[in-house]
């Protein structure tokens, strides 16, 4: 019997057999490379970038695999040994296969070098003999399009995460293992645990490292945000020590305040701020520190800077001052400052390029280029200097600033409120739109109520309501407005004495005044607004000097009534003679005493160039060296004049003539220790800016500031109005409780010449000191709630010889009865009138109650006690001269 050989089970049949396997599923035909077949139903796996890619992009191959091509925006320059280095231009760095290729803005290849390091924003390297600094990452598709080379601009920077969001076809293919699957493996499967929250990865994140050490001595650390987006960490923002070591305490607080405002930490619905420090407190340095911090740091770790483009808008006279301050504090190589007026500069260099981070432009120029500035990456932060110019809703510069798509806006002004609360409303609405609601509601519910509560004779209910609204307004504005006075730097500067000198008019000045007021057409002048304005100008010139009318163009296009008045004045009154003007006579005496007894310099400020011409004539006649700066001085020469005056000797340059409205806020005349404000302006901010010229950082001597005012004339009325305007501003931004303004009857006295030998302003105060310098001074931190008036009443009654004060301190003081024949009725009525005036005066002119009130006539009588109160020995010698026109003066020393 023939037996068949044994066959093991499950052996494969020969390849040439056509029968299919009996129990195995049929598979698709094999591929040509003899690999296992893959079901066409399954899609290739999606590529997922690792978390490490967000931290840095490697430019070198690893593990034999090629890395993706990466492109960076960079700044480049040739190697140089200069102390102040600047970047030569922008470029793109292409990193591929371990090599870095530098391309300039025109698309021309500038060089190629090996690159084996990981690059990220802020990295530095050398390519083809050029220094490179990486700025940011750009997508490959954007680079390959080449459109930025054609337009001469670079694309908008993107984050690293956006680079990895591009389709995987842009990345090189990596071989994938091919795995055979069955039809069952591609069927839908529902994970029963899919509804449960996914576990959070426990991978420890690196500890955030701030740019500067927050634990270093005197380090200035900004406030941290309350929270961070998911997946982000918070890092400390520390002021660069190169700036921080120069900041004083109040400036440190100012930078912190601005930072919190623009980062949205103080106002829920806005990122704007108003820095309203007085002149000389360093608003420019505080702003530069804020800009530099936001350009280089971010409270979110491994995220780009908060801002990349900053726009500074200011008067054209301050452009060079801003550029000089940036150069002073940061040098030329740390930050790029762009000024459009420079030769060869194009606006696209700022909007599209990366060499410039800050642009400085004037208010007028901004309106014509605002559309072009919005191109490119746009503007991230706007700084508006002297922002009190933006005081109406229809202001073109304010509309231009409001049109930019940025909420970060900072306004700088030394006078946040000049005339009324309406101007302040528009400033607040510009930085934080809607924070004060609509103007119609604000005017009816705040402005009108506050003003009504501060009017003289207001009822108690109106006063209470106005005070409550004022406190509420101050509470709202304190969130985004910071106001400090010059007192905060008093310890850093020498003392300053402000002197308001009231001069009796000369006979010529009084005669011209009477001829005008007695004219038959005077009534028609008061009924015409145009003629009234011209009369104000005429009377102010009479106060300065009657010689101003010797010019035929002294009054441009006078009305018929004004022309008839001028024709009635004898021409002999208009001849040049310093003795015809009380202020010219006083100035001549002051100049002679200073030049003969001291080595100090003086600054003389006026609102009129014609008045400066007369003062220049006076200086020339006395052979005193001087410099002059007014509206006709070229912009390029102004800073040179200031530097020359500060450095020159007194023998060469003794005086500096300055137009109050041509200097701007950037002129520091610290070479002088005396300043004369020759005439007065309706706007107190103009005078305050002028008086702050010499008492600034760098001053080494005690400063004396004189304000010349003709007693009883229109100048004294303007001065009184100034005091009440300042009080209103203090009430809003400084929380002081003072009165708003005069009554209608008081305003009607504007053109009247007061012949009272006593000082009208002192009489209006109702002060009891009689000009002996011992006025009851109200502390600055004590609110004006009527206590002063009551205290004065008690003091005056206690000092009365007709009152029996008693000896028992526990018994309330009562007025004693006196016999009728012992009562001085006239003295009693005089005392009552003083008390009534004081009740009105204290609230109106609270600031003047902090001055010494000195009657010059008492000094001339030989009162030695008054001599001891006068700190200015030069003024004391002048007053004792026989023909000195000073009749009364206020004195206040700070520091």
UniProtKB/TrEMBL annotation:
- Helicase ATP-binding domain boundaries: 264-434
Q: What is this protein called?
A: DNA repair and recombination protein RAD26
Where are the residues of the annotated region Disordered? 1-64, 189-217
Taxonomically, the superkingdom here is: Eukaryota
Q: Name one GO cellular component term.
A: nucleus
Start-end of Low complexity biased regions:
48-64
Any one Pfam family match given in the protein's UniProt record, by short name:
SNF2-rel_dom
Q: Which UniProt keywords apply?
A: ATP-binding, Hydrolase, Nucleotide-binding
Presence of keyword Chloroplast:
no
Instruction: Give GO MF terms, alphabetically.
Output: ATP binding; DNA translocase activity; hydrolase activity
- Check the record and name the InterPro entries matching this protein: Helicase_ATP-bd (IPR014001), Helicase_C-like (IPR001650), P-loop_NTPase (IPR027417), SNF2-like_sf (IPR038718), SNF2/RAD54-like_C (IPR049730), SNF2_N (IPR000330), SNF2_RAD54_helicase_repair (IPR050496)
Q: Biological process GO terms, please?
A: double-strand break repair via homologous recombination; reciprocal meiotic recombination
- Could you list the residue ranges forming a coiled coil in this record? none
What is the organism of origin for this protein? Microthyrium microscopicum
**Signal sequence, renumbered to the chain:** none
Record field: compositional bias (Basic and acidic residues): 13-27
Q: Which intervals hold domain Helicase C-terminal?
A: 586-740
């Amino acid at each position: 019997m023939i037996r068949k050989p044994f066959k093991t089970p499950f052996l494969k049949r020969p390849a040439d057999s056509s029968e299919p396997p009996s129990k195995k599923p049929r598979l698709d035909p094999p591929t040509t490379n003899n690999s296992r077949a893959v079901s066409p139903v399954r899609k290739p796996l999606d590529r997922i970038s690792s978390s490490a890619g967000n931290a840095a992009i490697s430019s070198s191959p690893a593990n034999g695999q090629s890395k993706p091509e990466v492109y960076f925006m960079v700044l480049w320059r040739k190697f140089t040994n200069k102390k102040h280095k600047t970047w030569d231009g922008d470029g793109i760095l292409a990193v591929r296969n371990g090599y870095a290729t530098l391309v300039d803005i025109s698309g021309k290849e500038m060089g190629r070098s090996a690159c084996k390091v990981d690059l990220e924003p802020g990295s530095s390297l050398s390519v083809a003999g050029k220094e490179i600094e990486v700025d940011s990452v750009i997508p490959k598709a954007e680079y390959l399009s080449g459109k930025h080379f054609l337009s001469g601009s670079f694309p908008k920077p993107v984050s690293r995460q956006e680079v990895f969001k591009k389709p995987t076809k842009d990345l090189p293919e990596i071989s994938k293992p091919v795995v055979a699957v069955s039809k069952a493996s591609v069927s839908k499967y529902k994970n029963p645990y899919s509804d449960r929250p996914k576990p959070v990865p426990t991978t420890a994140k690196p500890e955030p490292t701030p740019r500067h050490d927050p634990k270093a001595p005197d380090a200035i650390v900004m406030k941290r945000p309350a929270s961070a987006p998911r997946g982000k960490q918070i890092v400390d923002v520390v002021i660069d020590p190169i700036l921080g070591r120069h900041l004083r305490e109040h400036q440190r607080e100012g930078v912190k305040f601005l930072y919190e405002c623009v980062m949205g930490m103080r106002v829920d619905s806005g990122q704007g701020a108003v820095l309203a420090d007085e002149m000389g407190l360093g608003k420019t340095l505080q702003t530069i520190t804020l800009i530099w911090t936001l350009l280089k740091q971010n409270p979110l770790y491994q995220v780009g800077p908060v801002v990349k483009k900053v726009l500074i808008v200011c008067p054209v006279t301050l452009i060079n001052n801003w550029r000089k301050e940036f150069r002073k504090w940061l040098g030329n190589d740390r930050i790029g400052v762009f000024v459009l007026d420079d030769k060869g500069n194009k606006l696209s260099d700022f909007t599209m390029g990366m060499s410039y981070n800050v642009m400085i432009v004037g208010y007028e120029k901004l309106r014509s280029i605002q559309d072009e500035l919005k191109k490119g990456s746009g503007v991230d932060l706007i700084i508006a200097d002297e922002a009190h110019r933006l005081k109406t809703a229809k202001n073109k510069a304010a509309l231009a600033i409001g049109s930019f798509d940025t909420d970060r806006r900072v306004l700088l002004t030394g006078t946040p409120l000049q005339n009324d609360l309406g101007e302040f409303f528009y400033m607040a609405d510009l930085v934080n739109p809607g924070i004060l609601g609509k103007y119609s509601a604000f005017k009816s519910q705040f402005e009108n109520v506050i003003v009504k509560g501060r009017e003289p004779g207001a009822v108690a209910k109106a006063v209470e309501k106005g005070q409550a609204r004022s406190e509420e307004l101050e509470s709202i504005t304190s969130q985004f407005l910071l106001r400090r006075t010059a007192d905060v730097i008093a310890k850093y500067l020498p003392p300053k004495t402000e002197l308001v000198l009231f001069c009796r008019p000369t006979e010529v000045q009084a005669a011209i005044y009477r001829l005008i007021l007695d004219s038959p057409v005077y009534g028609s002048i008061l009924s015409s607004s145009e003629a009234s304005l011209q009369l104000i100008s005429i009377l102010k010139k009479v106060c300065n000097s009657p010689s101003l009318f010797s010019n035929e163009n002294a009054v441009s296009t006078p009305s018929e009534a004004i022309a008839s008045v001028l024709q009635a004045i004898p021409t002999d009154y208009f001849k040049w003679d310093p003795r015809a003007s009380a202020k010219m006579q006083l100035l001549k005496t002051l100049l002679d005493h200073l030049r003969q007894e001291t080595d100090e310099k003086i600054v003389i400020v006026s609102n009129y160039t014609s008045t400066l011409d007369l003062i220049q004539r006076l200086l020339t006649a006395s052979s005193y060296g001087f410099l002059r700066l007014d509206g006709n001085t070229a912009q390029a020469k102004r800073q040179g004049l200031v530097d020359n005056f500060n450095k020159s000797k007194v023998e060469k340059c003794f005086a500096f003539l300055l137009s109050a409205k041509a200097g701007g806020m950037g002129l520091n005349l610290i070479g002088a220790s005396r300043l004369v404000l020759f005439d007065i302006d309706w706007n107190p901010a103009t005078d305050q800016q002028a008086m702050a010229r010499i008492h600034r950082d760098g001053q080494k001597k005690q400063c004396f500031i004189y304000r010349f005012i003709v007693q009883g004339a229109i100048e004294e009325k303007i001065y009184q109005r100034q005091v009440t305007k300042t009080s209103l501003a203090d009430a809003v931004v400084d929380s002081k409780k003072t009165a708003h303004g005069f009554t209608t009857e008081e305003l009607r006295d504007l053109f009247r010449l007061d012949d009272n030998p006593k000082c009208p302003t002192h009489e209006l105060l109702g002060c009891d000191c009689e000009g002996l310098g011992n006025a009851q001074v109200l502390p600055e931190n004590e609110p004006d709630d009527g206590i002063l008036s009551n205290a004065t009443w008690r003091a005056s009654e206690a000092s009365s010889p007709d009152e029996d004060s008693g000896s028992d301190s526990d018994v309330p003081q009562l007025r004693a009865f006196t016999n009728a024949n012992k009562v001085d009725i006239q003295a009693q009525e005089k005392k009552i009138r003083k008390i009534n005036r004081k009740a009105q005066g204290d609230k109106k002119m609270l600031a003047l109650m902090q001055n010494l009130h000195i009657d010059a006539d008492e000094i001339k009588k030989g009162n030695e006690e008054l001599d001891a109160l006068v700190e200015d020995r030069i003024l004391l010698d002048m007053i004792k001269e026989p023909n000195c026109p000073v009749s009364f003066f206020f004195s206040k020393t700070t520091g």
